[in-house]
Amino acid sequence: MINIKDIRKTYMKTSVETNVLRGVTFSVQRGEYVAIMGASGSGKSTLMNIIGCLDKPTNGQFELDNINVLQLDDDALSALRNKKFGFVFQQFFLLERTSSIDNVLLPLIYTDKYPADATQRARKLLDDVGLKDRTEYHANELSGGQQQRVAIARSLINDPDIILADEPTGNLDSENAAEIVEIFSRLHKEGRTIIVVTHDRTVAEHAQRILELKDGQLKG
Ligand SMILES: Nc1ncnc2c1ncn2[C@@H]1O[C@H](COP(=O)(O)OP(=O)(O)O)[C@@H](O)[C@H]1O
Ligand SMILES: [Mg+2]
Predict the structure, then answer these.
(1) Which domains, ranges and CATH numbers included, belong to the chain?
(2) I need a labelling partner for 204 at 20 to 30 A (CA). Which of 131, 174, 198, 214 fits?
């Protein structure tokens, strides 16, 4: 489903060039659960942003379901991104003074057809992550673990094939981290493809495959 070949990414900032990715090659099959590990600054988020079509590499090839991603224009790229990916980030990125259910519904603003059963689906997704009794709570009235579970429900509202999670447990204690990991395992069992970036080996070990980003390349 994902085919990445010899991806390179160079950032240019105040005349300083940083070669973050130096030839990353890997594939992910539909339904796989993959973890990417690596030291801080090794380029994990850079790679995740490229996979999630949020950013483009400097060089390389990237096919997603046989679509040549790198030749798409920005509109086509956004459409592909919204259809294929659900995103979960370390910082949750919820709207603070907005209810859980409205946060979950938010990505639908960008779809051309608002589903008639949207609210029902959002309720079900919140129920599935154990937040049935928190649908009307604002994000700033929830614990970190609860906020991340809202974010996971939000990532699923467009029914994406692939979940991309960048340090999803990075702001959580071990108990809440375990709950998040459990949810990912369930989503994987239900057939979703999951790619999770983490520096926590106990989180990574739930994946089927662990890749290590080092010196700008993926090993493992
Ligand atoms: N937009 C950017 N402009 C310039 N440099 C960047 C940018 N984003 C990331 N970098 C640099 O790229 C390197 C890798 O960053 P990142 O992908 O966030 O690593 P990780 O997620 O593994 O901690 C860092 O040295 C960072 O400073
Ligand atoms: Mg990062």
Answers:
(1) 32-56+77-219 (3.40.50.300)
(2) 131
- The whole-number mean pLDDT for each consecutive block of 10 residues of the chain, a chain of 220 residues, reads 97 94 97 96 96 96 96 93 95 96 92 88 98 97 98 96 97 96 97 96 96 93
With 0.85 as the threshold, say if the pTM is over it.
yes
Cα angle for residues 125, 142, 136 (degrees, 5° grid): 55
Q: Which protein residue's CA is at the shortest distance from atom 13 of ligand 1?
A: 41
Phi and psi of 88, rounded to 5°? -130, 130
20 C-beta closer than 6 A to ligand 1: yes
Q: Does ligand 1 have an atom closer than 6 angstroms to the CB of 11?
A: yes
Tokens 């294929």 sit on residue = 84
* Ion ligand 2 residue ranges (Cβ < 5 Å): 44-45
Which atom number of ligand 1 is nearest to the Cα of residue 40?
A: 23
Residues 154, 106: contact at Cβ < 8 Å? yes
